[in-house]
Amino acid sequence: MKILVPISLLFFACTEPAVDNSTTAVTDSTNTATDTVTKTVAYSSEEKVIRTGNTTPGELLAYAQSLIGIPYKYGSTDPAVGFDCSGFITHVFNHFNINVPRSSIDFTNVKREIDINSAKPGDIVLFTGTDSTIRDVGHMGIVNSIDNSVVSFIHSSSGKANGVTITPMNKYYLGRFVKVLRIFRQND
Residues 137, 143: contact at Cβ < 8 Å? Predict the structure, then answer.
């Protein structure tokens, strides 16, 4: 028996006005022969939780790394055109059928914040925009690695790299740092 229940989601470009352009279905299937129940909810704007299913941080990062070099393009989630920061995150997670908020600021209330010293590959890192005195989230990336306590993250940058790149958490980004979000339960 399958029941489809629409959940309205709002998606936003990094700094564009809200657009309601998507509906996600919740699939609830029950196999009475084995009494197994499968539920899939990728993102609920009410719960502020991102569900990753069976996708691992390693799978997500391998795909993200395959996009290195794609240019920066404001407001885009299309690899043929380029990505902005949240468009990159949206594309990478959506590749695995994981729905996420469309804009970086909409990640502000996503559960679960962790200390940067506990960051692991696959966690999301949030930053202010280029004006670090305005403490609203305006940029984001995915923690790629931690080497000698230095966090590196993969993101789409409008800066010198001008596209998808891996950047170490340097003084510039530490000044813009807002928080790290634990997305994958495998990282607990």
Answer: no
For the segment 107-160, what is each residue's pLDDT rounded down to a tens digit? Answer: 999 989 999 999 999 999 999 999 999 999 999 999 999 999 999 999 999 999
**Burial profile 103-133: b = 16 or more Cβ within 10 angstroms, e = fewer:** bbbbbbebeeeeebeebbbbbbbbbbbeebe
Alpha-carbon distance of 34 to 109, in angstroms, equals 38
CATH number of 53-187: 3.90.1720.10
Residues 106, 84 contacting (CB under 8 angstroms): no
**Hey, what are 72's tokens?**
């920066």
Q: pLDDT tens digits for 22-44?
A: 333 333 333 333 333 333 334 45
Domain boundaries, the chain: 53-187
Structure tokens at 14: 């990094």
Q: How far apart are the first and last CA of the chain?
A: 33
Beta bridge partners of 186: none
Crossing angle between the packed helical segments 85-95 and 57-65, to the nearest 10 degrees: 120
